[in-house]
Amino acid sequence: MSGMRKKRVVVVGAGIAGSLVATGLMDHPKIDLVCLERVGQDDHAEAGAGLNIGPNALKCLRAHLPERADTLISNRLPWRRWTIALTNGRSLMDLALSDVADNDGIRIRRAELSALLRAPLANRIVYDAELTEASRGPGGLRVAWRDRRSGQPHQLEGIDLLIGGDGRYSLVRESFFGSDTPHFMGVCLYRLLFPVGADCPIGDYGQWFNGPNRLLAFRVPGDFVYCAGSFPIPSDAEIPAAIKAAGALRAAYTPKGEPPSAEVAHLIGAIERHHPQIHWARLQEGSVRFRSKEGGVLLVGDSAHPMVPTLGQGATQAIEDACVVVEEVREALARGAPLADVPARIEGRRKERVWISPARPPTPCWPAQILSRARRRNRCRNSAASSPSSIATCRCRHDLINQRTLLIERGGACARLSLGLLHRGPAGRNARRPTPARWRRRAWRGRRAIISTPLRQRPSAGGKRHKSSGTGISCCAPRWRRSRGLQARLFRPKSTGGPPARATTPSSPAG
Q1: Overall pTM > 0.90
Q2: 120-153 exposure pattern, b = at least 16 Cβ within 10 A, e = fewer
Q3: 445 class by beta-carbon count within 10 Å (0-12 exposed, 13-18 middle, 19+ buried)
Q4: Average confidence (pLDDT) over 440-467
Q5: What is the rounded CA–CA span in Å between residue 230 and residue 253?
Q6: At what angle do helices 66-74 and 55-64 cross, to 10 degrees?
Q7: Is 395 helix (H, G, I), strand (E, B) or coil?
Q8: Smallest Cα–Cα separation from 365: which of 431, 428, 422, 446?
Q9: I need a surface site. Which of 30, 130, 305, 362 has the fewest CB within 10 A?
Q10: How big is the CA angle at 302 (ends 298 and 306), to the nearest 5 degrees?
């Protein structure tokens, strides 16, 4: 055994997923690990970002990297509630995470999270390593990089498993899958991190809507508040300079004819005071890729599945990715299986888990319409006049105005939790037919959310079964008789131990 060659594993990118994978594999006796990171050890490029990490990620960490879970929990603020309201203070949803998960999430600064995750790796990370090549040749997988400080080139061949965790603009992904044409979604996103005092009304995770304009904010350790905003813009143009002005932002979030709530007023004031520090971006849609067909190349985190940065699931799903990678690599080595087969196994476990948008884009709805529609006996009218023309072409991945999906695990059973704004089914003669037979949905007691789970269809009150229209999913199902075991099927733990990695939620095809 002592004479056997170690398996060479190269991790490109020491971000959230990459650093956790490296931590989980660095002491394995059969692995020769190399971790490359483009930035320097003291780089603070992400100091202006805050993150909330969901309960599902912490459950995975406790199962596979318990020391890292304990470290994060001891250096964070708890994420216990998710609220959604209009900017005038009218509440739309108040969700306690304890209702859908076994444990709290966490709120933390991005720079602090990176430092905590990289701390165990000590000198195992090669910093300032700018990747210049990732390829497959006669000798197998190969990477080359340049030292950004000295300019000296380096290369490494004979790689058994290449893991690309180098972010949304991954060179590993581009090298093996080609470049994705940017598809801008017509949404402006901006973020700001600012200091606050004891009188700040912002606490746990909250969202506030004024028409299609959305604010998001939560407090992070160190007496800071992370704020993110979004609003629609032309999809084929840069962010107009006039919209970036402080006065325009104030107008975007001030409700018409009434004062804003205390939280929104505080955020508007902070945006005006710290306006020069705002980071601006445009929302892009990206495809999901996990592995190359030839084997041996694996993508994780944003390299594999770029996610909307305001869903609270980007870092969360990256942590899940890392835990599944560590488990599969360890099992492959224990079985004596080639590491080149690991990416296919990981894709099989993870692909459905990150599918978060329906196959057909729903018609958008205004936030103010949610309350009235929820009272219409769980039905929505499908007239085209309900949405303004300025946002009528928004697609399903628009986090501002459309239904969004957050996956929250509880003991291995997966529920599809749609938070925020409801959407209507497609227009046409089948638009008012009930939801397809494979879905069971119920409105969540006045909260603007729907829980969906693949249960067997039950007869309606009239004793007749409804046929699927095959044209999409309508906003709300007809009045189903509630199953006594619905909550148990959704959230009862299937087993103890092990990560909640395998998804059981039906998902749409790639879109």
Answers
A1: no
A2: bbeebbebbbebeebebeeeebbbebbeeeeeee
A3: exposed
A4: 35
A5: 10
A6: 140
A7: coil
A8: 422
A9: 130
A10: 120
